[in-house]
Amino acid sequence: MEKKAGKIIARVIGIIIGVIAVILILFGVGEKIMFASFYANATQEMKTPGVSDGFVQQGLDYLEDRELYLSCGYMKNSSKASRIYIFDKKGKSSFIELWNEDGTPYTGHTGGIAHYGDYVYITADDGLDVFSLKTTLSGCTGVKKIGEVKTYNNPAYCHIYNGMIYVGSFYRAGNYETPDSERLTTPAGDENKAIITVFELNEDEEFGIKKDVKAVYSTTGLVQGMCITDDSRLVLSTSYGLAASHLYVYDIARATKGEYEINGTTVPIYYFDSACLLDTIKAPPMSEEILYQNGKILIITESASNKYIFGKFTTGKHLFAYKLDK
What is the pLDDT of residues 92-108, one digit of tens each? Predict the structure, then answer.
């Protein structure tokens, strides 16, 4: 009787495992069908770093002189120090922990990362936290914060292009609200809810960034990352939860210009709205920061992290490069 019961239990467990396996296979196939137009124009690149380590991928940067990528992110266990992963095109990776000035774990969300000179910039609550690039690449266990830069918004991503650093805020109704000053009706009639503040880089300035805001970009909500292409297009990566991500491609030259008051100063503002929108690309869920390389948009997602898991059974285990149309 016991043997018979054991066989029944084993058979039931086998059926359950089989059903789960079929569901996961169908889930992966379904994603490929749902985002067929994206995958038709995208190539699978290197492995996503940290997918089995409790690391939740957020920021993405590239060290051209070393041919290395940097990805920052927080840990599923919120008491652990956030990390920067250093990885190459073959997917070989290592990581370094982020520490506060006193050596305690730095547990910030670390939504964005960029570098200039010996400085690594990580987005923080009201600006950029600064770390040493040399120490980051040294093979040490951790790198301490060495300073901070005010950006006059609550940034979620950052990007460097042509001597400027762009630092953008994230908006989602209900849980990620932005100040009234960032919620603007654009000349085209769109309701933009966030801004990018633009600063000039200068090696003689403290932490390499001039303090005055050079310009402001008005953007839509849900923005997780941005890049600027060689032919002057602005690309925004937007996502939240399990919904499809989107890449919005804008013509910078066609952005309407106005004036904006920030930190007691009037600066130019550029509205990125339907008037200068060139293309909208539907992409797999949970896209984060992006990079522009060789005519393609390189995308990192957080879907394969141990926090969200489902990307382990789809394509979240790899970065994908989407080729932009001319």
Answer: 999 999 999 999 999 99
